[in-house]
Amino acid sequence: MEFSLLRKLFLFSFFLPSFSLAQSTSSDASIDQKVASLLSKMTLEEKIGQMNQYNGFWESTGPAPKEGSAKLKYEHLKKGWVGAVLNVTGVDNVRRLQEIAVKESRLGIPMLFGSDVVHGYKTLFPIPLAESASWDLNAIERSARLAAVEAAAVGINWTFAPMVDISRDARWGRVMEGAGEDPYLGAKIAFHRVKGFQGENLALPTSIAACAKHFAGYGFAESGKDYNTVDIGTYTLYNTVLPPFKAAAAAGAATFMNSFNILNGVPSTANAFLQRDILKKQWGFKGFVVSDWGSGAEMMDHGFAKDLKDVAKLAANAGSDMDMESYAFIAHLKSLVEEGQVDIKVIDEAVSRILRVKYQLGLFDNPYKYCDKRQEKTKLYHPDHMAAALDMAKKSIVLLKNQGNLLPLNKSQKNIAVIGPLATDKNSPLGNWRVGSDDHTATAVTEALTASKINYTYEKGVELVRGKTSFPDPVDLNMTDTAGFSQAIALAKNSEVVIMVLGEHGMQSGEGRSRASLDLPGLQQELLEAVYQVNKNIVLVLMNGRPLSITWADQHIPAIVEAWQLGTTSGTAIAEVLFGDYNPSGKLTMSFPRSVGQVPIYYNHYKTGRPGPKSEVFWSHYNDESNKPLYPFGYGLSYTTFSYTDFELLEQPSGQVRVSVKLTNTGSRAGEEVVQLYLHDKVASQVRPVKELKGFQKVSLAPGESKMLVFELGSNEFGFYDPLGNFVVEPGEFEIMVGGSSENLLRRNWSYK
Ligand code: BGC
After folding, report:
1. pLDDT for res 61
2. Is the whole-model pTM more than 0.90?
3. Alpha-carbon span 63 to 503, nearest angstrom
4. Ligand 1 binding pocket, CB closer than 6 Å
């Protein structure tokens, strides 16, 4: 079908934000004045110093000025040539370093103290991918809020979070750090995570600056291999990659981090199209962009910059405002400015952005705002934080299978076997990002069962890894030692039910931890099958940082619980679900593949010209595997059941569509359901996805209770970005779908005028 220009409504992205971008306020204006006044007093070296960030160089007992780079950094600090540091935490350490910047440097400009506070500081919440499975935006915001409270108590005023990269490839280790595969849900979560970290406004005592990362496309690393080439078109960039970043900017994210990858042949660090045109011009972002760790210098490895001076020129001119750990700006920007290769305006703009964030945080009023010993003593592992972490952990669990209602188990049941290396593991559930947390502090599943007075017997069955594994060691899987199998089999034989806790070691996901296999690692699959030979009554509890291909388990094991890496209170949350104290309500935010060959696999794929079997051979499919995922996006069971009826569409005078549907709890337990709404644009000027999430509501219902749910759909939902970044809304035929998973939906047609 052709769309005449008249029928096609063009709306530039700038005019159509899904959230209104932060407006200037009078306090913004006064900050701008202060920034301008300070800038006018700064020498060129001092300005460049603000654009310079160093990794921690502070020993716990004092600075280490003796050796090489430590000495250099210390000298730079005294000259006011360090704008920010990372990985320096603890009130005493931060205060001593801040004192040097404030008292010994000429202008006394306070520093930013950054850290990767990703899902908690001491009290660890579930990994972000797990949290996203809760679809509970308030709980997610609270998790970020409490992470900020603990981080602020140890001197941190800037977190390198949230990671808002969309990820479709479970091989990529960092899927654990994001919100899954969907841009609509990802944007909502990005917005709330930023709000959580930053609080009502940055000046408040426990507000810390957020950093939306990695701008942009980092989640699309080819073949799921971290740091690999990203080669996507602008159509996918605008519709899939950018929405969560735009939402983060709209939430007021103080900073952005660029990424290691290239996009259309240009490393993000030198990508003016991303940093200047889209982020700063189109979206009106007023914060600053920090490079990723050494991403500037890595442009030499990319073969994009010839030397470190070239790095500094390319990065600064493209809108990278702060250099994390490349030492390029501090070494070369001055001569580049003097030679006219970098305009002083570029420097002034970058420095103004950085100073602005410092003013917003209130650091000029009180550089020691985050250095309060009382807070440090009372806020870490605070009981309220532990309670919130437990609540979040329960909400993050996804029930994948429950044949014959094997779950929940009865607490008075005798003869329960618990088998598997992760059942007693107090470390893996903490996940990979744990900058502040103490090792081995998660509640193990066995500990939680003991605390609940559950009668069970434990056998490990197999070691997951050989020896100890801690950051940053690579995980050394046990592929040979089956010595524990026989005891596990003997125990299972004499038990009524077997809880098997299997999955990934906590260091198997995260940065630099891509996998080519998505099977249960090591000898765990063999153990599972061996136990199954003697007892089929198995509840499989999975702990992992990414979707796994567990097709055999799905075919044979009656009950499967996805328990991710749930943080400090992991075991307690799992026990509450297994024994019915909590009715699971999580829904997957990443598709689970049947086999690794299906990835990248995601529900909102574009339509192909050969979607179905018009011939046995020549259509878009695999010869040896189904096209369908094992468990789709949006999927998750409950101990109760829900029905969807009375699905109706009604045109509103405004042109919006009012979608209503009745949800009824048809089971015998109270429960929560994530009601999802999807759209499908049947014919458009660009090929559109088979379906796209455009709304959801999490609803709690008592047994037998019903509720009428209403969604409003308008141009925001019906439109999309063309490859030039224009937001277009095209009238035409759509399908509107509602249901409890992306694959189990009621459908209605709708003509959008
Ligand atoms: C990661 C970032 C992180 C930074 C600082 C990099 O390797 O990609 O996400 O914030 O290190 O730790």
Report:
1. 42
2. yes
3. 42
4. 86, 116, 160, 213, 292-293, 511
